[in-house]
Here is the input.
Amino acid sequence: MDGVNQSNFLVFRLFEWYNAEVAKVKRIIVANWKMNPSSVKEAGKLFSDVVKAIPSLKNTEVVICPPFLYLEQLRKISRKIILGAQDVSSEECGAFTGDVSAEMLFNMGAKYVITGHSERRARGEGNSDVNKKIKSALSVGLVPILCVGESARDESHGYFNLVKTQLEECLNGIQKASISNIIIAYEPVWAISSTVNRQDAIPADCREMVIFIRKIISDKIGVQTKMPKILYGGSVNDKDVEGFLKDGGVDGVLVGRASLDAEKFSNIIKVCEALNK
Ligand code: PGA
Here is the structure.
């Protein structure tokens, strides 16, 4: 290798190393807008208000997952926030009325896609469907955010087995390197804002499950392979986000209701950004 090539090679390695370090420390805040708001105009306003309210970010990646049909408009507003989708078809293309394929999402500027959300599971989606959707997302380079979580906590701790089964079945047949790049969101259904008679989860509830999830994943991919990032979701707001990020053992949060309020959502982002300073 001559001198110029050698220094290019070193710069390239340094760049790679830097990216890996940044990827390690960056936390992720994901907004799940669900089926809101009801017009593209309101969606644009909410998105722009968040963009304006947040500082330039060094430690935090912000992802907004709006309804599919707002993606194109929102991508024109700012690249400061990354876009994701809330669901994806398990099929590549063809006669699947109402479905939206991974390739369409990718071409529309989405980088992430939520899969296996409890609100979709409640409408009949099973682990094998989620598994196909994850594979379909990975095949085009989208990052799947796999949601897992129990509906209730029982005294005999059966909920650990439920989450284990969700992880094993949803990740079945996926290569270790791909599992590293997936994001796992632990969302106890009993804490989600739309659940009737919901209860607050505390960082300790989150931490014990996150330790368990890390164990399941490291048994699957080995300790040498990079661990996927893990998020917490379930009524996260600007008051409790710090606790989950500091004591919940997670790399970020998935926010539903509070992400529909630009002020609350940007406060959540600011809390996260301030943590690594
Ligand atoms: P929530 O939603 O923050 O409104 O509880 C989280 C989610 O369902 O992803």
Notes: Residues 32, 187, 192-193, 233-236, 254-257 surround 2-phosphoglycolic acid (CB under 6 Å). The chain has one domain: 6-275. The chain has eleven helices and eight strands.
